Amino acid sequence: MSRPRSLSPKNKLTTFRLTQAEQEEMRASAEKLGFRTISDYIRHLHFLTKNSDSKNVAVNFHQNHPVPTIKPFLKTKHGEIIHGNSLGYLLNAAEPKSIDLIMTSPPFGLVREKSYGNEDADAYCEWFRPFAEGFRRVLKDTGSLVIDIGGAWNPGKPTRSLYHFKLLVMLVEEYGFHLCQEHYWWNPSKLPTPAEWVNVRRVRVKDAVNTVWWLSPSPWPKASNRRILAPYSSSMKALLKDGYKAKLRPSGHNISDKFSKDNGGSVPPNLLAIANTESNGTYQDFCREQGIAIHPARFPAQLPEYFIRLLTDPGDTVVDPFGGSCVTGAVAESLGRKWVCCELSEEYLEGAKARFTSGYAALPRERSSPYCIYQPCALPVDDGDAPLFEDGGKKRPEK
Ligand SMILES: C[S@@+](CC[C@H](N)C(=O)[O-])C[C@H]1O[C@@H](n2cnc3c(N)ncnc32)[C@H](O)[C@@H]1O
């Protein structure tokens, strides 16, 4: 156990978003027990309980920490919205091992603060720990944890933060999650940012991909890629029509005649192309009419749809602990899954109500048109016409 020391301000509990009184109480009990930080204490609990079942984790947490208060906000046919800190749900209200899928997009550790309250990238993993504990507690062994998380640039430099990779390593190495498969969500409509490095100094390319970590408590979460097929390409359609002669490819792969079996569609890659362009619709109209802030960091419905279909059956339970405008809840509702969304901001929840009114369509009807991405260097340029910036873009070009 660490020697008693006072808790550093860096580790103060504001990141847990507890009330002031709860923060003080929690800090006092950790200090009393001789822990340098709350996270050290949580790690200690994790160590003590890692061989016991997840119910005991929660019991220990209860005995030593006040659990944040949460309140019901809205109930629907299949799900409910909870207002408050999701730790109150994950560590207390939810039954242990009761959840099939946690589908979420936590506040990102962006360098530039946004109005949904991002955390400093360095403190991100620390902030995440109690949530990781809660995720372990509530997930079934057959369940999955899917985290959509954008990258971040280091302040003032054209270099990237490692915070989302560090988070992944922490979840696997310290909390025992298995990395089933990383996905990449490409937003074809993303603007070329950060402008300073991309447009002004021209030493980086536009940042248009979010990482999506698909993890699970066991290596065998339930799943079927037959639920998420893509249409066959025209060459595959021709092949299915005209047949394929089994042969050895130059790569050494033996392409058998099974290749020409029609499976109803092709298995998609782990690159999800979804434009996040929705600026008008029932949700936005409702927010504008009511004078409510439109959530600034919504993900598109097709992202949770993909994972909900891939990883859950109708009647299974999906949770979004960082619910925002409750896109996950609306998609789960429309797919007949039980669901729970937790959100700290009541204003965002007031807006989310629009997603559960009659006539609201959670999922787009038209989606068959593919996005186009060019092969690298599709527009050849002579090296001499575009000399490299030898200083790596350190000096800003004069106008
Ligand atoms: C990136 S946004 C999620 C947006 C959501 N996916 C959507 O499409 O609308 C993250 C949200 O987590 C909320 N949040 C942050 N900490 C929380 C906590 N401890 N409990 C519940 N919600 C939290 C923030 O208020 C924010 O709305």
Overview of the structural elements:
The chain is α/β, with parallel strands linked by helices and 399 residues long. It has two domains: 22-53, no CATH class; 54-243 and 269-363, Rossmann fold (3-Layer(aba) Sandwich). It has helices at 20-32, 38-49, 54-64, 87-93, 124-138, 163-173, 195-200, 234-242, 282-290, 302-311, 327-334, 346-352; strands at 70-75, 79-84, 99-104, 139-149, 178-186, 209-216, 247-248, 254-255, 271-273, 317-320, 338-343. The strands form two sheets. The protein has a nine-stranded mixed beta sheet, with helices on both faces. Strand 3, helix 5 (124-138) and strand 4 (139-149) form a beta-alpha-beta unit. The chain starts with 19 loop residues before the first helix and ends in a 47-residue tail after the last helix. Residues 1-17 and 48-60 have low confidence and may be disordered. The site of S-adenosylmethionine (SAM) has 22 residues, from strand 11. Residues 17, 85-86, 105-107, 116-117, 295, 297-299, 321-322, 324-325, 327, 342-345, 348 line the site of S-adenosylmethionine (SAM).
In short:
By secondary structure, this protein is an alpha/beta fold. 30% of the residues lie in helices and 16% in strands.
- The name of the CATH architecture of the largest domain is 3-Layer(aba) Sandwich
Percent in strands: 15-25%
Q: Catalogue the unreliable spans.
A: 1-17, 48-60
N- to C-terminal distance: 58 Å
| Mean model confidence by pLDDT | 84
| Classification by helices and strands | alpha/beta
Major sheet details: 9 strands, mixed
Across the major sheet, the strand order is 1-2-11-10-3-4-6-5-9
Shape: globular
Q: Spell out the helices and strands N to C.
A: HHHEEHEHEHEHEHEEEHHEHEH
Helix content: 25-40%
- In DSSP terms (H or I, runs of 4 or more residues), the helix count works out at 12
CATH topology of the largest domain: Rossmann fold
The CATH class name of the largest domain reads Alpha Beta
- CA-based gyration radius: 24 Å
**Number of discrete domains:** 2
